[in-house]
Write a structure and sequence with these properties.
The chain is of the alpha+beta class. The chain is built from 5 helices and 16 strands. The strands form 6 sheets. A 5-stranded mixed β-sheet has the order 2-3-9-4-5.
């Protein structure tokens, strides 16, 4: 197996879901062995933040990576697209603290990366093989990891809302499978939480063009792409966080 990177650069622009500010992400090929890193081009010296567990600062409503006060947030969508395409080495230039949200799905990043093209380069990719089952629980969430020949995500969510309830889906993570089953699934939120989130500096860029907004008994504008779009999006988020 060879390592994989981008053949050309890819660009996604828009606004940040939580900052509400204009945002641009430029994804570029990187040297073998670098891994995936974010680069804050708006800051002096363009500091680099590796996409590693050790850099996680927060997972409240989005994934935040950082070193000290230098952070990048809402990175899970671009990382999910990169993971689906099995990209090992990538530099993602951000001109602010947040990646653009696009239409709220993973598709803008997947499309941009596919159009840029993926190329192989020398070096062995890092492969993690699960040999024994394990489980991690936190609050009302639990994660079970078990041995398998390929990466497959089985995700269950439950919300007391008529459009959600309890949803479960199983997805084989391949480039084609991700494109068909997960890439178009959009992020979602509840109208009743909007004021409280904005008071805490979150969801400042949320809009119907980028978020599925749920009222007490339905959807505020628009239509679902799948009846179970909610669990599909959560599965994609998990892939990005992995």
């Amino acid at each position: 197996m060879a390592r994989r990177t981008l053949a050309q650069s890819a660009r996604v622009t828009g606004i940040g879901l939580h900052t509400g500010s204009s945002a641009s992400a430029i994804c570029q090929g990187a040297p073998s062995g670098q891994g995936i890193v974010f680069r804050r081009t708006d800051l002096p010296g363009s500091p680099v933040i590796p996409a590693r567990l050790s850099e996680v600062q927060s997972t409240e409503r989005r994934t935040v990576l950082g070193q000290g006060e230098t952070v990048v947030q809402t990175v899970e969508h671009v990382l999910a697209a990169a993971a689906a395409l099995q990209i090992d080495d990538l530099t993602i230039d951000l001109d602010g603290p947040e990646a653009p949200i696009g239409d709220g799905s993973f598709a803008p990043y997947l499309t941009a990366l596919e159009q840029a093209g993926v190329t192989e380069q020398s070096g062995d990719p890092v492969v993690y093989r699960v040999t024994t089952a394990s489980e991690i629980s936190e609050a009302d969430s639990s994660y079970v990891v078990a041995p398998a020949k390929t990466l497959r995500l089985t995700t269950t969510i439950e919300w007391p809302h008529p459009l959600i309830g309890r949803q479960t889906g199983s997805y084989d993570i391949t480039p084609g499978g991700f494109a068909r089953e997960l890439a178009q699934a959009r992020t979602f939120g509840f109208l009743r939480e909007a004021d409280a989130l904005r008071a805490r500096g979150l969801a400042l860029g949320a809009a119907l063009e980028s978020t599925l907004v749920l009222s007490e008994d339905g959807l505020v504008g628009g239509a679902l792409r799948w009846p179970d779009e909610f669990v599909r999006h959560k599965a994609g988020d998990i892939l990005g966080d992995l």
